[in-house]
Amino acid sequence: MATGPNPRPSVWTRPPKKSPTLTRELIVETAIRVLDAEGFEALSMRRLGAELKTAATAFYWHVGGKDELIELVVDQVYGEIDIPVLDDPADWRTAAAGCARSLRAAILRHPWFAALTAETGLAFLGPQLMAKTDHMIGVLEDAGFTLEEANLALGTLVSWVTGASIVEAAWRNTLARKKLDERDWMQRVWPVALQAVQPYPRLRRLYATQAEARGGPREDAFDYGLRRILAAMEP
Question: Which of 138, 155, 203, 210 is 20 to 30 A removed from 118 (C-alpha atoms)?
């Protein structure tokens, strides 16, 4: 009987192999260090070999290629996300907010992470991602959401956090490449921006009220959006 094509192999479909000189954990740790420092373009098997002082071919004992390596590093970052433990199921918004803030922090620590989550094939099979997802869906189910609603609510929350945070992560990368912090950049650009908004009355008023706060943290804007998202969700 004819069968369909086999799915792309995933690193999660087989147990990790052991060798005396190299481990999957060390490969992942080194790959994340390269990604954090230099971005996705810098990551290659050859580069990892140079970092670990071993031949690139040695990695294929543990990882079938770059796609599988990405599955591993993405799931490792998911493991950094914390979900508060609740005593009262009715307090589900506290857990959801804690999860959202922890996800944002992970994206800002690893600016490459959010962009890669859409390109990682079978990365959703990763144990860290599945454990966090199952936990958060359980929190929402206990609060009164149906299983389907819980999945949709969680997807909505994660999509909003990712969209809000990926822009900030990219902005931080841009500043880092220019060797500037946000306050330095604002001091350079703010006078130009004030001049540019003069023909636009609403933007002119808005920029005037923000003049004293320029260069400050973005947590207030994030928390505002997060509160609005959670307020709209009901079991």
Answer: 138
